[in-house]
Queue: 4 jobs
Job 1
Amino acid sequence: MAGTTVTEVVELIGTGNGGGGASSGNGGGGGEGSGPSASGAVPQRTYVTGMIVGLGGVLMFFMALVSAYIVRKGMPNSTWVPLDVPRILWLNTVILVVSSFTLARSRNLFRAGNEEGFRYWWGCTTALGVFFLVGQVLAWRQLVASGIYLQSNPSSSFFYVFTAAHGLHLVGGLLALLSVAFRPTHRLTRGTATEVVSIYWHFMDGLWVFLFLLLLLGR
Amino acid sequence: MSSHAQSAHAAPTGFVSKYIFSTDHKVIGIQYFLLALTAVVVGIVLSLLMRFHLVWPNAHLPFVNGGQMTQEQYLALVTMHGTIMVFFVLTTAPQGGFGNYFLPIQIGAPDMAFPRLNMLSFWVTFLAFVAIIAAFVVPGGAPISGWTGYTPLSGVGEVTGPGEGWGQTMWIVSISLFCLASLLGALNFIATLIDMRAPGMTLMRMPLTCWGWFVTAILGLLAFGVLLAGGILLLLDRSAGTSFFLPYGLVINDQLQNHSGGSPLLWQHLFWFFGHPEVYIAILPGMGVASHVLSTFARKPVYGYRAMAMAICGIGFLGFMVWGHHMFVSGMSPYSGFAFSVLTMSIGVPSAIKTFNWLGTLWGGKIQFKTPMLFALGFVSLFVSGGLSGLFLAQPAVDNLLHATYYVVAHFHLVMGVAAIFGIFAATYFWFPKMFGRMMSEPLGKFHFWLTFVGTYCIFMPMHFVGIAGGIRRYADASAVAYLAKLQPLHLFMTIAAFVTAAAQLIFIFNFFWSLKFGAKASKNPWNATTLEWTTDSPPPLDNFGGDFPSVYRGPYEFSVPGAKEDFIPQHLAPAQVARSK
């Protein structure tokens, strides 16, 4: 066993085991030719990686809540009273889904170099996001008006927890949208910033659709 | 672009930006390390108080209100010891401390991918630590529901015990903050490792330490969000009157609690879905360090590098499938119990791969018994001793007998507690020269090792027998129970061992701070090691490599290569640069 290892290693000295040097694409090139390490800069795709990885953590957070929902509802003597979701949620859902399309349109225009169109549709997305959040608050007010509070029933507890957790994440998305529109970006290029924010926004859109279906069909 | 990035990395000048709110991963790593050092001192003091109380339950203690420790105060010690040790020592030091410091250097990067996020992670962790320490001084004192915070005890409030009011709330706030910080940290580790590797640093050329930190970060990313969700629901149960975890008809201290139909087991599921990966979060970095150090001081490549990397991934993957083995006695279906049992025992496979490959690495090596090597060997020893008892606990029938006894306490202290601590010690002795530019004292280090090694076995080996004899954990005073009273001499022995072992840690603390000031100057590569951190200055400059970023040409453990002049070939040497023997 040791013998085979030795011969292999001898060859390693001779051939250098491939790879290495600037020829390897494996260690990440920052698109500037010399690679991230040589310039000390963080490659732009790292921000995309970071966002996707971070959303993995966010997903686990929501899936924990969802599994708690399923388990809690299935408990014997769960005293679960199905909650009729406020009808305004249908409108909110449509608004949020549409905002994903306006965001995609905005990104396309950005890539085409149409600054004005980019800003217009980016603004539309932001406005739709605000409408969605206002709609969620209206939904809460409707529930409160009909006497359904956080502690009224496990179904209403989960409703408030889901909408609040998702709403908070969406507030973060709104701040990011505004930040891209109004603040110059430092470490990220604008292209990266729009991409990262888009990934987040589409994810929050999809997550909401999932939660809405869960509240609707799994009540 | 490039010039801008460099200006972003310009050396900070003020004390605050350099040492307090620093974005330099090396400073942040040391901050995490010092936080863990503070936490471990607190944790050890708490454990000594527990050990003392177990043997002399009626002793007069001047610092306790009323002179004698109450049973609730003992439970508060148990809770705080576990919480502080698991979160603020075993999670913080190996990953936040050494991972932060050495992951970027070992992969040839100038810093973490997101330095400001890194700083945020540390300071949120620090806030979490402040919150948990504050639990000692809030009205009612520290919580008593254990580091697992089981409901309904933790979910009702002050009526369940003195620390269950404010103290428990502080506990939940602290843990939630810790979750947030760990999520941000995990994200940073993963992004850094994926996108910031030096040219030629393929995944299969990474040091095994990086594999350990990488898989640990993935576990953290997937696990901490679940605990955060559980923590929020628990907080709502306590403060907003919801009933996620609290059942109907709960009567505590003759008071009917106004809750309906919640499930205490739901909390256990959420907690252990986090809690089991958490024990691997504590131990995987230690496994990486052990492999790294064993190879360096045996002057041999890691035996079966690829299998070692895959075993780390396998342990991480299986770690998510076995949380139910903490709940065998919760009345779960025997079928799920069986599945959890089989999956748990299957972790023995990658664990055995690691153990045998560690032994294979040592086999026939020219072993140098330096202090880091001793601690790495101690790690292997403790991991095996503690891991073997896990095979017994993995079987529901046996676990029914041993659950919540000292057998379990002995098991997890050896396998994740002390083993992980030995990983931290190995890392400290190994990397101290790189971090601070000076060597630690070898004689003191060896003295520290032998006292600690023998001492921990003296504490935890007898504990197995106490457990088998039916000694229940968390009982404040076993001497009042007839069949347990016979075990008191063993408890006395363990308590003496605990005090001696704790005293031995003063040697380490002295060695650490003395060497900071008076240790012999360290060269760039005092251990003749191969990985990238040994190619730069000790301590490394701000961007780690002084602008001269390495390319990687070979695997991480090329020791004793036939035909080469030296018995080690650093990763950054091109084939033409390797000096050949005649």
Note: Strands of chain B lie at 251-252, 255-256.
Job 2
Amino acid sequence: MNRHQLGEFEELVMLAVGILYGEAYGVAIIDEIERRISRKVSIGALQTVLRRLEDKGYLTSEFGEATNVRGGKRKRYFTLTNLGSRVLRETQEQRLDMFRAIPRVAFPK
Amino acid sequence: MNQQQNIQPPKLFLRFFRWFCDPAIAEDIEGDLTEMFRREAGSKNIRTARLQFSINVLKLFRPGIIKKFGRQSSYNSSPMFKNYFLTSVRSLMRSPGFSVINILGLAVGLAIFGLIAFYVYHEFSFDRYHKNADRIVRIVENLRTENELLLQSTSSPPMGPRLLRELPEVEKYVRFQNWNLLGQRNGNSFYESESYIADSTVFDVFSFKLIKGDKTTALREPYSIVLTETMAKRYFGDEDPVGQTLKMDYDNYKVTGVMEDVPENSHFRFSNLISFSTWSRNNKDAEDDCWFCNGFHTYILLNSADSKDAVREKMKSFIDKNVEKGGMYYEDLPTQDLTSIYMAPQRSWENGTRGNLNNMYILSIIAVFILLIACFNYVNLATARASRRLKEVAMRKSLGAGRKMLVAQFLGESLIVTIVSGLLAVLIGWLSLPWFRTLVESPLPFSVFPDPWIVVSIGVGLVLFIGILAGAYPALIISGFQPLQIFRPSAKGLYSHQNFRKVLVGIQFMISIMLVAGTLLVGDQIDLVKNQDLGFEKDALLFARTNGDTSIVSGHLEAFKNELKRVPGVVSVAGSSSVPGQNTNNIYTEIEMTDGKMSPTNINYIFVDHDFFSTYGIKFAAGRDFLRENKLDDTTAFIINETAMKDFGWNEDQAIGKQVWGVGRRGKIIGVVKDFNYKSLHEKVEPVMMALTNYVGRISIRVESGDLTSTVDRIQKKWNEMIPYLPFDYQFLDVMFDNQYKADQQLNKTAGVFTGLAIFIGCLGLLGLTSFAVERRTKEIGIRKVLGASVGSVMVLIVLEFIWLIAIAFVIATPITWYLIREWEQNFTLQAAINPLRFVMAMVAVMAFAWLTISFLSFRAATSNPTKALRTE
């Protein structure tokens, strides 16, 4: 499973894609991340990661409708693939396991 | 809807995005961009939205988004670049000497350009370090007297306070006055000639940094003194000086602060500041009302940099309102921007040293010239080298290389070479910086640069610019040839860039001739001024300050002089108020004119003793010197110079016996001396009046030329015996006079060095070019020789190519140089005639260097065996 390590930002993007189930396109993902953890995300950073995740097979995409506000350009909706959701879940479990393994005394009062 | 149409993202960036983005993903990203843009344009303003859009596009310019350029053509291009690199290196290595010339020439040129630019920048950086630099002005005076308009750098004590009261634009003022004090502590004594009294606002107006003490109170109380670090060290060593006392002349001052040394790029520097109240408490009347006590320098802080004009406009009415119009009056009180003072034309009584704007222009011109020479060399040699690679180019073209690729290849190669040159230039510049600092006699600290990255980026920009410019010509020309033309070089036009090269070489010759002739002519002028008859003997004459010390002046003067005269090696000793080369006092006097009436005037005075004229070797045109036997001379005798005599409309006979009422004396003129330069050589000799005094400021000592050092040592010993507490602070008069021309001499020296280097670089280029000319004509020379040409005629053949270039260059260079030198000489009262021979000399010199360079190669070509030449293919 070591091959499927997710980067921190990759993980965020995949989470956002998951949350927005069916509605996950560029601007929506940016908004979601910004709304939830108030982190500024540039289109450049997001798009690179989206393509990378798609190349790895974690995400898949299809064109949606074109709207006027987008200058007549279509949206590209991203969804998690089976592999993607498995990797995401594993990542979360690993994190949680590690968090739980911290002894109580380690947390300062 | 309509409004929506107007809101468009920046076109340029959109096009850029469409150009670089991978088409597979471009559509939806562009949609995202547009959506975000629209949204921001709706909620914020359009400009921020457009800016954000541009930033987003730039952030998208990253791997993963950028399309794979060149992927369409299905071959891998890296071996091609490898091949470019390889052929470039090979072509550089094929003639290593040539490449070294090419790179080194450019590097030296760049290094010199950089050094001179540094120096010029430094000279223009003066006083800019003050936070308020753009709001500070200096008040100066245009003072109209009976017979002249005096442009003085000084002002009077009431001006600052009155301007503050009457003009709302004035926020603060500082007045300075230079005091020359003798500092004493624990048996150490030094002249502090750079002591200034200053208002307590000095630390608010200027950005001088106090290290110890309180800047609001430090200069409030009388007899407070703030020392610079250097001066504090001089008297207190490692002790903390604050709170201690320091004796200056006859008074004790309380040290209230220590400040950082005044930066060297300041138009005037001081070793200490004394509270202004030290002076004003005893001179209350003068401070309030003396509008002609112009011994001060007043600086004014304005409320904004834009109010300078407003202040200028109000000055006239300010003068009318406050200053009485008597025999003397202010025509104007101009303001000078703080940052302009250092380079401004000098006014009288300047504080501190000044730069010379003209010299900066001249140096800048030289710097640009040298850079041009170096660049032309580079272009020439690059073109020449490229022409040797015609076959390579033809081969590449036949194999399908596009023109763009060839241009890129040659440009890339040129860029690599210039970058190497640039790095080398940095190394050369770095290594020669200490030497350069001595040459221009300036410390040139790196701290004058506000931001080192700006310097670096300008440097890099310059190198890239030269690289592209120099590479562009060969790249564009050569890539344009048809392969067939090259393989069968019968067609015309193939060597047409020869002419271009010749033009460049011609300009190089022109610049060289201008530099050589210019340097020679500047040297002429300076020699003329240096060797000019000053009207007195300046050699082997030294002078020391008396500081008005009571054991030297007044009643003790004769005894003191006699003591000094007994020192072996001393010829004679004289006392005077000032020595030639220094400022004199302009004093109100009434003089009897030819019609018998007394006429008022202001005239310069020098007060002297009986031995002054004989010690200085000043000759009499009429009348007699002051006589010791004649006691009346002490109070009734005046001596004038020839200029004064002519100024008053007298001849030698009329002058003697004319009445003079001045300096509290009523007397007669007893003698007229021949003119001597009592001020600077930049100024004309003015009328001057001399009268006897025994309260002298300077002791002049004429010594036997020869062993000066040991004589000076003996005088020093004697001096210390008689007045141990007063330093023997002496200077040689000829040195002081030469210092007046320091800036000019320095220019001459600097120009000389760089002219030499310019010619060197030019010759390097010529050497390279000739080697090509010779190589190209190897066969021609061989055939000529076979057909019976002599070595001489072959050499003439090669040299001739360059001779006519030099001739044209000479014709163009001469009038330009003539004009420039003429302009420069306007600085001097005594101007050297421009010697046409100098131009011929310059041409001959340049020609000689060129000929030596060329003949070195052409001789080899001419003497070589023709069979060898003909066998080469």
Note: Chain B touches chain A at residues 25, 27-36, 38-39, 55-56, 58-65 (CB under 8 Å).
Job 3
Amino acid sequence: MLAVSLGLLMGLVGQISLGHAAFFGIGAYTSSILSIKYNIPVLLTIPSGAIMGMVMGFLIGYPVLKLKTHYLTLATLGVGIALQEFFKSAEPITGGEVGLYNLPNITIGNFEFSSPLAHYYVVWAFALITVFLGDRLFKSSTGKKLLAIHSDEQSAEAIGINVFRNKVYIFVLSSGLAALAGGLFAHCSCGAIGPDGFGVTLSIKIIIMVIIGGMYSIYGATAGAIVISLLPEMIRRLGNFTSVDLVVLTHIQDIIFGIILIIFIIFIPQGIVRKKEE
Amino acid sequence: MGPNGAGKTTLFNIISGFISPIRGKVYLKEEEITSLPPYLIARKGLVRTFQDARTFDHLTVLENIEVAIPNNGDIDSGRKVFPFFKTRLVNKFIRMRAREYLELVGLSDLQNRSARSLTFGHQRLLGIARALACRPSILLLDEPSAGLNREETNALLRVIKEIHRRNIIIFIIEHNIGMLISLAERIIVLDKGRKIMEGTPEEIKKEEVVLEAYFGRKKCLI
């Protein structure tokens, strides 16, 4: 879902955000804090997290999107690092380095989604909805305008498309989606979140997902996300098989990620899911 | 017309809002449009094309036109993300209109191709069709015939004449003087950012000697 949210941003307007994990974090923290400290039902706090993500997306996107290309990417990197530091240091609110724990589960009426399997279904349901809506956006006229902006900003502007407004719009939407995913993550993972999970490493991981999967379709990001999530699992299995030490394995994993990314960028820049070319 | 570096494209950039002038003002039908954002100027009916074709490579030929067709509201996302009947009707209408513009420039057969796969001449025509789809009252064409072969230039001429027939005012920067003289009602000669001559094609032709003297040799006009 997170990959899809960035896929929208990268695929549609070609912006690369290195701060996406921070929006993921905003959603997770907002939802967690509201549910722990104010006892608001999770069903309401997750959407609040998403709204918070959109508000922050607007506040950050509005000034930052005046920048172009790598300057924009660098600015999002700055935002990502700053927000992660905020999560770390604002101890009274975010629990500092330790993070927040004992997060409640999602409940609808009397039913509590407590088992891992229930979490699994909730996340999948949301992911499918996201993919569906994302796909519609890709095919909508707004999506086409964004693709036009991606191809050539000046020409888009010359035919009456409000380039800046569309960019802010998709940035806000993408941030909101990332925050929604963050909220889900907080309540559907192990019931605890910490600042380390929302750093630049995660942002880069999402970018890898989008690049490997392919930017020009929502299914690309989805495929990329699945591959990248399964990869560590596969490597771990391999580790069991060859009985390599787990710590060594984690490092090997990073190396393999890097190699795969380079291979993709050089040989298959369009990703797994390509657009049909006549 | 005018020699390289005369400021022809710069003038277009200023008029269409891509560059803010240091001095002076731009008016469109008595309304001041100086330094307005380009997309607003385009919506007011003053649309420009660029020297290079600048098609939207991520879209198909038909979609290139569709994005240019104005519909109410720039972002009306809710209605577009969710599949409602009304949206389909609007889209159908937009598609129909887009096909008309493609037919005008003779690219109907290529409508589902990606814009990137077109020849340069076809991309140029697509760019013009896209500009027309904004329903301009004034069209600024920046060197539309540059880089085209004779056949493509003829297709272009046909399109320009058709646009003129639809009562759209055309401003054209052109290096092909023969074409300019056969098309234009008035010609303005620019050099070093200043207007040095203005008149009907006949008058300009008469002054050719003067221009030659001014620019050194005839080729400098190109």
Note: Chain A has a mean pLDDT of 74.
Job 4
Amino acid sequence: MAMAYNFHIIEDCLKCTVREQRLFCDLSREALIRLQNIKATSVYPKGAMLCLEGQPPRGVFILCTGKAKLSTTSSEGKSMILRIAEPGEVLGLTAAVSGTPYEATVETLEPSQANFIAQTDFVHFLREHPDVGLRVAKQLTHNCKCAYDEVRSLGLSNSVPEKLAKLILRWAENPLDLPVKKPNETPLRVTLTQEEIAQFIGTSRETVSRVLANFRKKGWVRVKGATWTILNRRALENLVTT
Amino acid sequence: MQSEAANELYDMLAPELRAELARFEQLRIVPAGTHLITCGVPPEHLVIVNAGTVEITLDCRSRNTASLGYSGAGKVFGMRALVSGELPEIDVICLESCSITTVPRDVFLSLLKNNPQAYFAVAKVLSSDLQIADRILRGNTRRCGVGPRPRPAKTV
């Protein structure tokens, strides 16, 4: 199996051992064979742009390995992150299905593998295979839920500490599998810069830096490079609910 | 009975599937204030707005409600909840008397099961819902709510 960066490249979807855990990829054998024929596998470095907001849709990307951020430009001209895509997600789906320009810019946050499917091939694939339709509906439902959560979070959180606490708690839903000093500690891998976190919660980098420093000073989180550890989950949760 | 106006679902369905759904459709006129979709309540029907204006709001758990915008003729509601089995997160309320067409949930799900090619139409509707939410995020990240409320169309 070929390797790139620090991961194995999954070239054959039929042999992928993690597809059952993925939002889109758990398809029938017939659909996987078809997928294998229409997809083009590529490996991207960190910071690669898969598609640009406003660009006519060329197709979709199935993220196999790595993470990507979906960002857009607000009406005030500010860059803002809509969400972080995880492996198994289909990117550019809305544009490909509806034939409208890409709604967001997709940029890899770490070295990633993505399978590209041209728009016409994808639409045929969707029409021909019932399970693909079902998976697409599930993906769109998931995306819609994420967008509603963002509207709630960005629009109605009162303060930056509350927004940052919400974001950290959301990341904590997928903790790192690392040894911890105390049982209630939760380690996380944070690949976003403070500037990107600011774009995520609609504030400035300076404010994120100040609020995070305050969290650290209070002993709520520990930051060591890209590894953050939640030390006092209750304190963060209280911030969100008050 | 066939729904009065073109809509985002039927526009993408094959004629024979539209005809099949039409056998079970109910055309109704509902007064202003009617909840077409209620947050947290599983919808019994797919709802197609033929005429009139509705407001889409997002429940924000004990805080003020966020308006996702206004919609009207051609919009389909309840699709996400029907397809995913999840409870609706939005409320859809008629701002004026509205003409709607309803399709019973079981009829629609049965049609999907027997005609999976209809998922493409479903994907179109869900994409449109997602675009509404994304527009809100792009346009207004702090205050929630969108542009001016439209002038009510002619009362049905």
Note: The first helix of chain A runs from residue 29 to 38.
